[in-house]
Amino acid sequence: MPSTSRPSRAKTRLVLRSLILSLACVSLATAHASSVYSIAASAPGAGSVETGPRIKNQIGTVVQPGAAGVSYTASFDRGWFEIELSGLPALASARFLSYPPERVRQDGALLAPTNSFTQTQIVPIYATGPGPEEKRRFVANVKSAGSSQFLLEVLDSSGTPVCSASGSAAQMATCDFETILPQGTQFPIYQTRFDVRATNQGNVSSQFEIESYVLTTGEATGVFSGPGRVAANDEFRVRATHNLRLTPPNYYLATFLRIYSATGQLVREIPVRFRWDGTDYSEMPLLGSYDPVDKKWSDGAAASFSQRGIHGGTFIDIPVNATSVTFRARRGDFSDELPGPGAARDIDLYLVPASSPGPDPSQSRVVKVSTAAAAFQATTFDDSAYSSENITVTGPDLTPGRWYVMPVSKTGEPMDMTAAVKFNAFGPAPDFQAGHYFNPSRSGHGAFLDFAGDQWVMVWYTYMKDGTPTWYYAAGPAPTAEVGNAIWQSPLYRVVWDGNQSFAYGVGIGRVTVQGDDSFQFSYILDGEAGSETMVRLGGPGCVPYNGNGLDATGHWFSPDKPGFGYSAQFEPGTEIHIAYMYDAKGQPRWLYGQKNYNPAISAVNMLQLSGFCPLCTAVPTTTTQVGTLVRTLGPAAAPDNLPGLTHMSLNATLAPPLSGTWSENLPAGLLSARKDCR
Questions:
Q1: Largest distance between two CA atoms of the chain
Q2: What residues form DSSP beta bridges with 329?
Q3: Which terminus of the chain has a smaller tally of CB atoms within 10 A, N or C?
Q4: Neighbouring C-beta atoms of residue 180, cutoff 10 Å
């Protein structure tokens, strides 16, 4: 190749941020199983109520509307379901937000006429010092199956009534108001108290139930996700995720689905509650963290979960260059200073390395294991407040790949548990290459993983459960020495489009663990479902000819003047591949695929719409339908570094059923990722 200059890291980061800034920074919520609820949203307060058992991991029966919002009972501690909505006005720039879900306190009593009972709810508000006022939303409900009339009252800590409401057997009484931490509060924890009182004003004795919960009013995008735009009175679905791994079985979490037609324009609010029945627990990759202040990766990874006797689905991917790792388990959380209730504090720790059993490359779903397969076990009696186990594995015993970290209650008594891994030492990292990666045993989907200065960027193209194509976006700081330069973790975003701009919902976390120069283990939580696949690089070194030199244009391209969609291009000797990341009529993310023999003079590429298999589904052969044409323009000075590459991208496509919509964009292109030197 001829001598070339490279763009600075600062310039590359600027280009990257121009795309990321069009995606919202969002919080993570996780999920697992799925069902569908039908809600006529035009009816005030309309919702639907769980009426029967849910079918695990598939779309279930449409449940008829009720009056108490959506109440979902999950078989897994993490899961997802879908809410089917209709009757809304047009949502030109739809947003589906919520408050972080909080635990519902429930109390009951049998009351004779004129009798009362009171529930006391403490409302903590955390403040780090003088600052703006903070708000909490307090919700209290009282219901009765038999009383013809009852009264709900909420009193503050001084006994002064702040809210009252009447109810009957046919009508639940509700108090819903905000409480405020005054501006400038100096102490770290501010607490106030509310008493919720139910009084039977009917003429018969009846069973009463009080429930109350307190919500932080800062909205998040990690619980619900939906389309980018909706026509008036259209029917559509919103995906709801739940994460109950820290919530004991049969405790409810509550929040509100808050539907916006545009920024600041709230259209509808629907109460939603989640409950885990304790039937089963979800597989769980142990995840680390990145400190944006210190700009360092943690060398540890941990997960805590509520009320288990054993957890056989907790796993960690060990990179190929790790040389010493300590595995840990304990009762409660590692930050706990006091033991939890109950006399039993002992916990055992079992390790099952990948070779026993090895993952099936044709399956991405993570299986659970038993202690019978354990190659390493720590078991000691420890009656202190810090009951824990530690196993350090080094040298040839530390095989790269998947390891299960299994905490076990020695007595079998369910308890809160934490599993954790700390990386102690690493050898030299592989010369890991960016590029196009896929699983040969599950061909039909894949990921483009690119470097962009001190950031990594990934677009994962795959399918929804109905087989229609979709894509997810990830971007974050490159791995550092704290993780052996071999572990990368980023939120996964589902990006939607309103016709002019994109909006991102955080729908999971992806973790790349390097296993060689051109392979990695990709483990993830997507809508709460944990999966893992071994990915290998597609293609090899070498440039395609262009203007008498080599063309180094493989990477991720986008339109700097209109970010939010883009293209992955791959140029290999003899062939070129293009994937377009665009949106359907509702603004949901979709992708098209095109491939042709490489000829710089022929710019048109036929684009195909594929139908395939979801990340955790059994792989099936894909089917294709030609739906449009991409025209790529090569030039000697592409943005942002003025080197040969793509200077213009045009796509015209009409999606095939079951999808709908057209996509037509014709704009200058710029390179988002770093050049690969034709490697």
A1: 95
A2: 389, 419
A3: N
A4: 12
